[in-house]
Amino acid sequence: MGFKLSYKVFGEQGVLVEWPKEISTKILDDVINFKERLNTSDLKNIIEIRSAYQSLLILYSEDISFEKEVEVLKTIYDSEEKSSESQSTIWRIPVCYDAVFGLDLEEMSQTKNLSEEEIVKRHVEVLYTVYFIGFLPGFLYLGGLDEKLSTPRKASPRLVVEKGSVAIGGGQTGIYPSESPGGWHIIGQTPVDFFNPKNTPPCFAKPGDGIHFYEVSLKTFNDIKVLVDAGVYQIEREESHD
Amino acid sequence: MIKVLKSGFYTTIQDLGRTGYQEYGVPYSGAMDQQALKLANALLGNNEDMAVLEMTMVGPRLEFQCATLICITGANMQPKINNKMVGLYKLHQVHTGDVLSFSASKSGFRSYLAVKGGIQTDQVMCSRSLYSGVTKDATVKKSEELPIEFFEGGTNNAHAALKINTDYFNSKTLVVNEGPEFQLLSKAQQIKLINFEFHVSSNNNRMAYQLEESFENALEPIITAPVLPGTVQLTPSGKLIILMRDCQTTGGYPRVLQLNSTSINFLSQKSTGQSCLFKLLNSK
User: Fold this and answer.
1) Per the database entry, which stretches of residues form a coiled coil (chain B) (predicted)?
2) For residue B230, which residues of chain A lie inside 8 Å, CB to CB?
3) Nearest to B250 among A8, A14, A134 (CB)
4) What is the DSSP string of A178-224?
C-alpha cells in the first residue's frame, strides 16, 4: 500500500494498473496484496486478474466504463484492509548438475573463471522469489540470482531445450517447463513437473512463493523421475517464516 | 468420426479458447477469426463456442464415417463434397463415406469447418483448442480420426444460408486503441504509425504477425508485463509485431497499439504481402 499507481485502458475490456518501474519484492508484495483483495472483493464483472513484476491486468466480462472501474479499484487499493495474510510456500527443487544435463556448465566455468562446483554452490545457496508466470505455460520468473552468475544470453539459441532444463539468461535463472527453443545457458535439469494441464491448478508455485534448488546425483534424479512419471512424487516444501 | 486423409497446410481444432489460465502462462488460443467460427456454429444451431476445424492457406481432405450436417465459413478454399463444388455459409448434409476436400484459398487465409454438435475431442483446461505443451499435438495429423456425433435429417433447414460480405478480407483498415506505451512515442512517430501503410511479412502465424517495414524506434524495452492478443509491440530493431491468439501472456517490448477484437479477425484473414493501415480510436 502507498505506492503511486497509474491506471490505463488496455484492450476493450481491460484496465492495466502500473507500479513504479522497478523490480523489487516490496512492489511484488503490494501487487500480490492488491490482487488478493480484488479476488476477495467479489466484483462480479471481473473475469481474470494477471500480475507481472510491477503491473496488474484486470479483465472484465463486458465492455466497461474506464473511469467508473478505476474509481472502484482506487477505493479498494486505498482501503486500510489488508488481505488475509497470504500463505507463501518455499519449494525445494532437486536439480542434477551432472554434465549429462549441464550442457553449458563447462563453458560458463571458463568464461566466468569460476569452478563448476562454485557455480553450483552459488546457484543452490540463494532463496529465489517467484515474481509471476509467463513466457511458456508454467515458466516462473525468479528473482535473486547471484550477480556473479549473470551471463548474457547465447548468441544463437538452441532449437531444442529439454523439458526441466535449469538455465541462466542475463541476470535471471529459470526452469524450462516444457521442451522449447531457448537461448539461456543450461546448467542442470530437474525431474519435477512445473506445468501439468491435468492438475488444478496446473502450476504448484504462485507469485510470492520461494524456490530453493538443491543438488542431486544422477541416480537420485532418475529415482525421482520415476515417481514424477507415476504421478506420486510429492514436492518438498519448507515452512515460510515471514 | 471424421478421418483425415490429408492434413492440409496447417489444420488445427479450435473453439473460443482458454480463459482463466493466463496467470499460469497459458495462451488463450481459440479460432483466429472468431466471427467466422461463431457464424458457422450459429448456422448449425450449435453453441457459439463449439469446436471446429481451422484450416490455413490450403485445406485438408476428409472422409466422414457417419452422417452429419456441416457448414464452412471464412476463407474460400473451394470446398468440394465428392468432387462437387459446394458453397460457403450454407448447410450441407453429408453421409457415411462422403469425402470433403479443399484446395488453395482463393480469398482469405483461414477457413472453418463446423459440424452439428461440434468436434468432440478431449477438453484440456476447458477448451479443445490445440496448443503445443497444453494439448498432446499442435496440429491435426494425417490418418487421425476426429470424434463427432451422428446427425441426419437436417434437410428441413438445409436451405439456411447466409449472404456474407467478405470484403473484410480485403479491407486494409485495422481499428486500434492506444497501447500502454503509445504516449512514450514522439508526436511525429505517433502520426507516422497511424498514417503509414504496412505489409504483412512472411513471419506470420497463430502466435504473431510481424510487419515488413521497419519503424524508427528509440524506445527501450520495458520491464516484462502482460500482453494480449491484438497487442502491437515495437522491437528495439524497429519491427512491429502484432500478437495473435496463441501469443505468450507477457512480453518485454513496448506495447504501442491495441487492435480491437474485430480487427484481430480481419488480420487473421491476411497473408504475406497484404497491406494494413492502423486507424486510431478514442485518442486521449
Assistant:
1) none
2) 11
3) A134
4) S-EEE-SEEEEE--S-S--TTSSSS-S--TT-EEEEEE--HHHHHHH
Query: Average pLDDT in the B100-128 region?
Result: 96
Q: How far apart are CA B235 and CA B248, in angstroms?
A: 15
Q: Which domain holds residue A28?
A: 6-78
- A117 to chain B, minimum CA–CA distance in Å? 32
pTM: 0.93
User: What pLDDT does residue B217 have?
Assistant: 82
- Which among A22, A134, A179 is the nearest to B248, CB-wise? A134
Q: What is the CATH number of the domain that holds A109?
A: 2.40.100.10
Collapse the DSSP code of A36 into the 3-class scheme (helix H, G, I; strand E, B; otherwise coil) and give the result: helix
Helix axes A105-112, A116-125, angle to 10 degrees: 100
Tens digits of per-residue pLDDT, B165-221?
Answer: 777 888 899 999 999 999 999 999 999 999 899 999 999 999 999 999 998 887 888
- Domain end point (choices A78, A107, A123): A78
Question: What is the predicted pLDDT for the residue at A1?
Answer: 64
Contact between A223 and A233 (Cβ < 8 Å): no
Reading the block at residue B245, the C-alpha cell is: 491468439
Q: Which residues of B touch A57 (CB under 8 A)?
A: 226, 228
CATH code of the domain made up of B171-280: 2.40.100.10
Q: Are residues A98 and A163 in the same domain?
A: yes
Distance in angstroms (rounded) separating the CA atoms of residues A214 and A217: 10
User: Where do you find CATH 2.40.100.10 in chain B?
Assistant: 171-280
Domain count, chain A: 2
Instruction: Check residue B220 and give its pLDDT.
Output: 83
